[in-house]
Automatic annotation (TrEMBL):
InterPro entries: Acnase/IPM_dHydase_lsu_aba_1/3, Acoase/IPM_deHydtase_lsu_aba, Aconitase/3IPM_dehydase_swvl, Aconitase/IPM_isomerase, Aconitase_4Fe-4S_BS, Aconitase_4Fe-4S_dom, Aconitase_dom2, Aconitase_mito-like. Residues 35-478 form the Aconitase/3-isopropylmalate dehydratase large subunit alpha/beta/alpha domain. Its cofactor is [4Fe-4S] cluster. One of its GO terms (molecular function) is metal ion binding. Its EC number is 4.2.1.3. Pathway: Carbohydrate metabolism; tricarboxylic acid cycle; isocitrate from oxaloacetate: step 2/2. Pfam families: Aconitase, Aconitase_C. The keyword Lyase applies. The lineage of its organism: Bacteria, Pseudomonadati, Bacteroidota, Flavobacteriia, Flavobacteriales. The gene is acn. GO terms for cellular component: cytosol. This is Aconitate hydratase A. Keywords: Iron, Iron-sulfur, Lyase, Metal-binding, Transit peptide, Tricarboxylic acid cycle. Residues 558-686 form the Aconitase A/isopropylmalate dehydratase small subunit swivel domain. It catalyses: citrate = D-threo-isocitrate.
Amino acid sequence: MTFDIDMIKEVYARYPERIEAARKAVGKPLTLAEKILYTHLWEGSATQAYERGNSYVDFAPDRVAMQDATAQMALLQFMQAGKSKVAVPSTAHADHLIQARVGAEADLQDGINKNSEVFNFLSSVCDKYGIGFWKPGAGIIHQVVLENYAFPGGMMIGTDSHTVNAGGLGMVAIGVGGADAVDVMAGMAWELKMPKLIGIKLTGKLSGWASAKDIILKVAGILTVKGGTGCIVEYFGEGANSLSATGKGTICNMGAEIGATTSTFGYDDSMRRYLAATGRQDVVDAADVIADHLTGDAEVYANPELYFDQVIEINLDELTPHLNGPFTPDLATPVAEFHEKAVANGWPIEVEWALIGSCTNSSYEDLSRAASIVEDAVAKGVKPKAILGINPGSEQVKFTAERDGFLDSFRKFENARIFTNACGPCIGQWDREGSDKGEKNSIIHSFNRNFAKRADGNPNTHAFVASPEMVAAVAIAGRLDFNPITDTLTNQAGEQIKLDEPKGFELPEKGFAVDDNGYQAPSEDGSTVQIAVSPTSDRLQLLEPFQPWDGKNITGAKVLIKAFGKCTTDHISMAGPWLKYRGHLDNISNNMLIGAVNAYNMETNTVKNSLTGEYGEVPAVARAYKAAGVSTIVVGDENYGEGSSREHAAMEPRHLGVKAVMVKSFARIHETNLKKQGMLGLTFADKADYDKFQEDDTINFLDLEQFAPGKPLTLELVHADGTKDVVITNHTYNAQQIDWYKAGSALNLIAAEAARNA
């Protein structure tokens, strides 16, 4: 079954005309990213060329995807927009709220029992507004999207930073906050600064223990967590064509870890095979008609340095397995160099847990390659030293892998755990026994992120990212520094053996199969569907519009916290046990910035209340300032807001009275989320001004009343001793975004427009 085939055919029907217009406007051969962007302009056919990294452009995405943790807030906002039905195909997926603890069946039922109020809310909202709903157990959003909705040349936005996974099927798929999703679902244009372009040429072909995961692990080491910010990464070359579609998806998925707007690959035979295997031959037939438009022009790939802002070349013949981490996904180490580096840094070598899954590596191919390592170890009489946990990516993957014996392969390890088709440990939904002790330890996983406390809540857990096959090998050896290319293991007979190279199946030979994929179609007419939100619920809370700007300078503001070093959205709004409050703004605001390190005392969740002189938890101090009518600001370091797309990291400060966030630099999604929620997101003109902010400062804006595009804003810092500093801040607000600020939020403008047209 192909969802939305008529929409896909309409997209393809306008491709030739819009590509021709884009060629005339740009005046040179086009990359794939440019083709997709220019064919999805809100205005229609291009009439001008947009400047990369500078021009704000309105786009018309083809579809929207939301996961349950972010969908709650997105749909609560959509309910305020005054619309009766979504304007584009949209889906919500219940994958984040199921905790991994015992095993698939028990954990799934436990998750349904604990989250029934939220699941029922999402189900009814989807039913009412024409949104497809994927029920608990159906699978991880990005794997389900790849199997059912992604199509070459399409544009999609999603309320999760790993929406970019769909680039594996040649889409421009971009992670956004819920307010952006509301714009598109409400039938409005979606705004994005025209991305710069990074071209990555892949030569050669993977072999042995090297995998698609190792490509992106190496790229992360080259570009770092902020090297792709504001850019689309486009992969090409013979090496790109040799990869499977799910391998391409893995690479695109972790593009979020380099800050990239998205990543993508040109349409090729691997995509044809995957689309056909997942029941979408009609998409292949339609795409083949315009196949030349669904990849970059030949001239671009022949001379990439003329068309991309940056070009990187990687020879897959030379690539070896990598382990990235700990605590950041860009600390890349080839396996052959790991032992020396681990000893030098004092990283724990022994591993208790090894985890395979997440939206990054939970495909049929991933499971089959990891299972081959397990089968080889069993055949050679080697028992695993670590616990192996498995999260299949979807019910279709799980059902097919079960049929073909791969899950039974994992069960041959007595302590293996097959978890629910859900995110689980990757997002902190893991009840790991003993993690509360805070002991220093290491784990290895095939996930995408490895920030401190992310997987199990223990700040001393050193998490390392690797391919599924390397995770399986390390689980067997029980040591992070095990190099399967050169090292041997001792089997039960005392013999030294080597593990065979992994082998697997790109696609199931007998085809995919599933009894119930978990999809719930919405009602044709949802006007009679009732949505109930109890006023006493601690899980769901109807939203009150944020107050508009009063048009005056902000004065008398206090520094709530000056965040030191890495401050991701996990630090600003933690996941794990806090996920249950994602639909209740006031309750989840109690986790605001509790993970950030306060530069004034180098502690977490303890800041000074200047009104009392006492120290308290960040949310409590923020509430005290708000109750006293005192505005607050947050000061931050580089790449502030790195990580997830969660708009709660912007909504919580807005709710608790923070008026501005001033940093050395922003991650893209978080900066946009701040703007959407009526916040000031500012960067220092001189990064050294970060040091001028003192704990007891009073901050006055001097020229906010003249807020305008391209005009810096000036702040006065009045120190406790009466001395003053003046700080100049820059911003990227255009006229429309300033209107959001004036109105109190972008949603306030949407609701006002809907009321006028009612």
